[in-house]
Model the fold of this input.
Amino acid sequence: MRMIRKQRGATLFVALIFLLIMTLFAITSINMSTVNLRIVGNMQAVKYMDSAAQEAIEQKISNSDSFASSVGATTVNSTISGTNFTVNVAAPDCIDSQVAAGYSAVVENVIPEDNTWEISATVTDNVTGATSTIHQGVEMRMLAGNCG
Done:
C-alpha cells in the first residue's frame, strides 16, 4: 500500500509532459504547412508571370513588322487566372547577322541573312509589385540590311 501512494503524482506529471510534446509537434506541423503553402503560392505566381511574358514575346515574334528598325517597345496588359499583369516588351535587338549558307536564290543581288534577335519582356504584378524578366532568342532569315 505504501508503494501506491508514492506513485500517484508521477502519472499526472508524465501525462502532462507528453501532452506538452504533442502540442509542440502540432504547432510545428501547422507552421511548416503554412510556410509550404506560401512557397507554392509564390511559385505559382512566378509561373503565371512567366506565362504572361512568354505570351507577349510570342505575339511580338509572330509579327514580322516587329523586327523593323523603327519599332520600339510595347506594353501589354495581361490577365491570367484572375491576376492582372503589365508586360513591357522591349524592341527586338539584333545581336548577330550572317550570310545565309546554302541559299541559291538571289533576288536582285541581295543575299538573305540569318539574323539572331533577342527580345526581353518584363512583367509587373499590379497587385504585389513583383517583377520578372524573360529573355527570348529567335533566328530569322531576312533580306540583307535588316539587322542594324
Summary: Residues 32 and 114 are 52 Å apart (CA to CA). Residues 2-142 form one domain.
